[in-house]
Design a protein that fits this description.
The protein has helices spanning about 5-30, 55-75, 80-100. The chain is mostly helical. The chain has a domain at about 55-105. Helix 2 runs antiparallel to helix 3.
Length: about 120
């Protein structure tokens, strides 16, 4: 007769333990990771263009326009009609100036990334 805790299950457990040890030792023997490259540090940025009126018209149009719309239409702090109209015109003008400032054609050497 066979015993309930016979040699069969114990032998299987030992075989599993041995295979596990082989796998763990193979995993630990792997080569160390390659050296991590140095962290990228960007160079200094250029200051905002002080004399470029086109740039400042874009900034004012795209910030003051929506702000005027919010203050006149969303929050009743300003009279609605004239200030909302001025905000809409400023927003559209800022966007049009932004589109006009973009280059018409890109050269072959510009790459495919963003221009910063």
């Amino acid at each position: 007769m066979s015993e309930p805790n016979g040699p069969g299950p114990e032998r299987d457990r030992d075989d599993i333990d041995r295979r596990f040890e082989q796998m763990v030792s193979a995993w630990r023997a792997s080569e160390p990771a390659a050296e991590v490259e140095e962290h990228f540090v960007p160079g200094p940025t250029e200051p905002l263009p002080a004399g470029d009126l086109h740039f400042w018209a874009i900034v004012v149009g795209l910030t003051a326009g929506p702000l005027l719309l919010l203050l006149s239409a969303g929050l009743p702090l300003l009279p609605t009609i004239p200030w909302a109209l001025l905000g809409a015109v400023a927003t559209v003008a800022g966007f049009v100036l932004l589109v006009l400032r973009s280059p018409r054609r890109r050269g072959e050497d510009d790459g495919s990334g963003a221009r910063v």
